[in-house]
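User: Sequence in, structure out. Go.
Assistant: Echoing your sequence, followed by the structure tokens.
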Amino acid sequence: MPSQRDSLFAELRHLSPKVTGGLLRMRQEAYRDGVVPAKFKLLTAMAISIALRCEPCIHAYVQMAADKGISQDELIEFLEVTMTMQGCPGEEWALKAYALYKECLDHGSPPTISGCCDHRTTTQADEEVTR
């Protein structure tokens, strides 16, 4: 059964398909494999999410990067850049990202965190936009 947030989000997508669909299509295009592999784009989005301190975004981008097969070494290098730019607060938020990555390795998918936006880039989400 969908949560109230999921139901509201589906309703908003139905009421505003051009904008919500535009955001989804923008994510699909931005995070695709191109000259730069998708996993590095997702790690960049994760680093920005850490800087913004958006836990739902960190969760989503760590999960999507893990799904693209990032290595622990790749994750750590991006976390090092983030910590360098953010200092102590960046270290605390990078720790959250690292914990989520370890959960992905151990369990395949960490628990869902509700939050600011839906980061799905799947065909299912695109179909919801066109309904």
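User: And one key feature?
Assistant: The two ends are 19 Å apart (CA to CA).
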